[in-house]
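Quick log. Single chain, no ligands specified.
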Amino acid sequence: MAAWEPNPDGLREILHTIHESTNMTATAQRSITQKLNQFTRAPEYIAYLAYILSEAKTEEDRIRTIAGYLLKNNARLILMAPVNVVNYVKQAVLRAFDDSSIMIRNAAGQDIVSFLGVLEPRNWPECLAQLLNALDSPDYDKQEAAFNVLEKACEDFPRKLDFEVNGTRPLDYLIPKFLELSEHPSAKMRSHAVACLSFFIPTNCPSLFANIDTYIACLFKRASDDDPSVRRHVCQALVLLLAARPDKLMPEMENVAEYMLYSTKDKNENVALEACEFWLTFAEDVDLAPCLQPLLGKVAPVLLDCMIYGEDDLLWLEGDAEDNAAVPDKDSDIKPRHYGQKSHGLERDADISDGNAPPKQRVGAYGEETYNSDEEDYDFDDDDFADELSTEWNLRKCAAAALDVLAVRFGRDLLNVLLEPLKEKLWSNDWLQRESAILALGAMAEGCIEAIEPHLPTLIPYLNSTLNDPKPLVRSITCWTLGRYASWCTHPFSEEHKTNYFIPTMEGLLRMVLDNNKRVQEAGCSAFATLEEDAGPELAPFLEPVLRNLVFAFDKYQHKNMLILYDAIGTLADAVGRSLQNPVYVDILMPPLTKKWSSLADNDEDLIPLLECLASVTIAMGPAFQPYAGPVFERCTHIIHSSLLNYQQFQQNPELDEPDKSFLVVALDLLSGLTQGLGMSLEPFIANTQPNLLMLLTACLKHPQAPVRQSAYALVGDMAMGCFVLLRPHMPGIMAELILQLDPEPRVEFISASNNAAWSVGEVALRYGQNDMEFQQWVNPLISRLIPILLHPKAPRSLHENAAVSIGRIGLMHPLLVAPYLGEFSQAWCQALYEIRDNEEKDSAFRGFCTLVKTNPTGIAKSLLWFCNSIVRWNHPSPELNNMFQVLLQGFKQHDEGGWAAQVSLFPPAIRERLAERYRV
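-> predicted structure:
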């Protein structure tokens, strides 16, 4: 095939467009972007860009550089390009990498990284060869440019660089070359070398580990390097080695630990941060705990010192050190938030330990679950530390996170080490010392609660008094720390406990909600929301003063904190439930909410959190919300209708911006709230609204975006519970969509939608009632999808649980149709629900399961242990269910006393004892 050459007209057009893009107005931007997008359809487009970058010497460097950046952004086009174009682009980019202009070289370097990533290095060996040769160049600039490219490639795709071609591995040459260059006289080159090597640690690269002893010796040699960038990469490498190959560090751990402690105190914060990551990694690995424990006495005090605000932090937070409540927020102050998408789940309860029980949940300061280890990874970037402790990951935040994990790992031992330094700092005259100690108390709350608890009668009053500190940063961190101990403060130990700790903490945080500093308002409002969650109905007697304080904040808060205030009000409604029905409380809360509601347009993003807040309020107020229901219902249906139309337009014209699904999601969630609160009282609104809500709901069930379907399935379940008679005429269309959504192994983003679908079919089955002819047509399609979900080993636990509940409920209503399948799923069914906390859903599901067992007793034969285990896990079964258990167990025993005795003798003692005690079997 002939070598590629540019067509003069095509070259002129692309150059003209690039020139236009440098001085375009905002209105022209869209047409330029569209034009550039059209060029991507031409197979030779990337060759023109490569030509402009490398050969268009008459053009300004900035024009050639723009061509280089466009080339990087379109790197994937090389996979579909003709061979002559591919060859030309490769050669042209490498030529540009030798250009005399640093701008052109930099752009070409970025192109090389992109093309290596897309093509994979094995398909561009000449590029690797040129970069490797450049590392030996006498020209330092060329050396450095090549190393820049190699470092980025090693960071972005280390596994792609680890390949074999014609019996040789390029990394067998590169790794020794990097080790050699770690001795380079230039600090920049040494830094590149140490960085490049470190990126191959997590991949267990054979070429690196063949040289592991030389590599570790290199790290120790560079540990005392004069250049902080080199030391930072040494610390980073030691962190990665600790995670990937701790066995290689253990023989030298005493020296490594001393070095990392020394580096954690480095004056260069980047070095100190990388070193601090070492202790976080060390603490997170449970297998390394015995090696870390002897170091606690040295490590913990250093971490405590790292939690003091640095000068850079204080400069960044300068605006937070004043009364600034009246200063409007900038848009940049407000982080993106996720709204709606509530997924139906069941609470777990474990009171009899057996060998099959899963590991316990991570618990908070006084026993509350903080995350479900079965379904999500705990990530410090998403924890309180990320929000509370400034805008980005830094030394202070890393030290606090490390202390948190150390507390979980070592509890009392950690507190014993830190008790004296903490006392000293808490009562220091230096506010920075006090503030860091209060942060440490919060960080340790979860793991050290048992050891700290005896000190809390002193510490909680101390923290409440610190809410009066003149420094806003002290007040704000105190709010956060009080939030971490909220579960102890709200625990109903005694009236005295309530008087001494709960009420002062509640009053103190409410004062902070109305502070004159925005950061304190934010921390106070967030901590108060945590207190609300933990206190639950205990807050009901204090609702009037609480509501008056929160309502006062409506007139005081700027944009960012208003969003947190909505959260706090929604959380309060969830916590106190129907106590909010009192007309006095309705009259306090609804005027400011309706005022905000009427001031926001349907497309105003601030409407989203307000709708979510109102969803909780409507459920809590129930019938008391009736006077406000009409306008809310009407607006929700209008938002749903217009959102569906907007999405339809987007599907017909993909060049339009995709509409924000959040409006649709929260409008559906608010209708769910209305349904739960008002039930059949919604009938006139549903009858008189056009287009009809049920028609809109059916359309939402087909929406391409999972969060919309998720909220729509939740609304189906809520309407089944609250006003099934209105839902029933539309059930054929709704059931067709629900059945399709039941997937045993949904994609991660579909899990919550599948959860809600699985839950809602059970609610619908109950409302149809026993042996209803219309529902019978769906029993087999539903069961044929729910059983595989229940049996699928990779389906999320929550999906197993919801599927089991719905199978039980369908079985309760249609036992003859479901009972033949009992043998297939009985063990999995009992395993899915034995830990679930007693509630009505579980009760109806178990009544259904017992009905299936009664209908087909042989179906339980191989799962009797699991069935009995799930029975004895109940704390308070309803009288009807308890009687069903009694009848079935007595029946098993009477049917074959010898066989029953033999089976029961193999049960764990706890199960045998409970069966004998409760059911005399």
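The chain has a mean pLDDT of 89.
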